[in-house]
Amino acid sequence: MRTVTWSVWVLLVFCSVFAEGQQRPVYSCGGNLTGTSGLMGSQGYPGVYPPNTKCVWRITVPQGKVVSLTFHSLDLESDSLCRYDYVDVYDGFVKSQRLGRFCGTVRPGALISNHNRMQVVMVSDANTAGSGFLAGYSAVQPNAKGERYCGGLLDKPSGSFMTPNWPDRDYPPGVTCSWHIVAPEQQVIELTFEKFDVERDNYCRYDHMVVYNGGEPSDASRIGKFCGDSPPAPIFSEGSNLFIQFVSDLSLTADGFICHYTFKPKNFTITGYPVPVTAAAPTPARPVALTYSEALCKQKCKRIGTIESHYCLSNFVLTGTLISAAMKEHSVLATFSITNVYKEGNLSIQQAGKSMSAKVTILCKKCPLVRRGPNYILMGHVGEQGHGVVSPHNFVIPFKTKKQRDLAVLSNVRC
């Protein structure tokens, strides 16, 4: 009996010592994490995280690598917009782009930074619910392939990409996704949209997709910015790279999109869409009048040219409806309720709620002749104070639905 008791005592001591050496790691509120890999967790994980806290973790991996973050566990107060308790992941430290905001229990795929730094911020309000999160980070090669939350490198001859949650439910709020499509030299990329439904705004200021020529975003290489529920026309790259970025804010969401891409020979053409996309050849430009003259308005009112030939000659291009008109000496000061803007230039646009309008001076009251009710395609120039100016030389016609595709294609043209 004494021998058995002694054996049990030795076993208990051994287990106690072993357990002390195998204690769970203690996760604190934030910190600086370095190296090629590691673990991080919310304060007190797997216990319930504390209320009214903000914890910041800064991850730095070796130069030449990027950070891949994978959530092993996620259990935060659930809310469709993640307004209360949430985890934000940023592509860098200061004034960096947010890669996503997460809450609830649905874990995202891997999030990958563009450089060797990533910042993770967890915020909780006065009411808590859940055990927080546990995540692992590792240093990977830039443009890492594989399963990701969204975005990534696409270099196969053809493929597809889509917003997170497609097609089961709306894309989440507060995400940024970047796809880099790389074709072989001497090939270009055709991008087509099967379905497209992103929060609508005349200027795509909230949720939007932007497509760039080349391998990184820049104003000079931007092809187009898209939102709403009308799929953009097919897009062709100028070279062998396209960069696509999708951003959603923290308010309304929608179905999202699915896009398909295909590599094409550089000299490939398809009716109506030459590659590379270049400006439509303009008709010889006449001097553009920005002030009234008797001689100008005595000319015969005859429309010359096409939408394509006038697009690059115009400072602004929009569709809209005349809502008010007032005589101003020999001209008409008109206000148009804007339906869509395809080229803004320096045009001054007023906004009241979701309604947008612009003031346009029609120099000759009878040319072009517009009236209340119809929707017009309006092309013109911009005068002082940002007001639009339309003379008989400009292009104004009633809008027809079949012209929407032509305008969408032209909006991708760099004049």
Share in β-strands = 35-45%
Write out the strand line-up for the largest beta sheet, numbering strands in chain order. Answer: 1-3-8-5-6
Mean pLDDT: 83
Note poorly predicted spans: 1-21, 269-287
Structural class: mainly beta
- Biggest β-sheet: count, sense, barrel? 5 strands, mixed
Keywords: Disulfide bond, Glycoprotein, Repeat, Secreted, Signal
Main location: secreted
Organism: Tachysurus vachellii
Domain NTR: 297-415
Description:
The protein is mainly β. The chain is 9% helix and 39% strand. It has four helices and 25 strands. The chain has helices at 2-21, 294-298, 307-311, 403-410, and strands spanning 31-34, 37-41, 53-60, 66-75, 86-90, 98-102, 111-112, 117-124, 132-140, 152-154, 158-162, 176-182, 187-197, 208-213, 222-226, 235-236, 241-247, 256-265, 316-328, 331-343, 350-352, 355-362, 375-382, 388-390, 396-398. The strands form five sheets. A five-stranded mixed β-sheet has the order 1-3-8-5-6, with no helix packed on it. The chain has a five-stranded mixed β-sheet with strand order 10-12-17-14-15, with no helix packed on it. Strands 19-20-22-24-23 form a five-stranded mixed β-barrel. It is elongated, with a radius of gyration of 29 Å. 32% of the residues are buried. Residues 297-415 form the NTR domain. Disulfide bonds join 150-177.
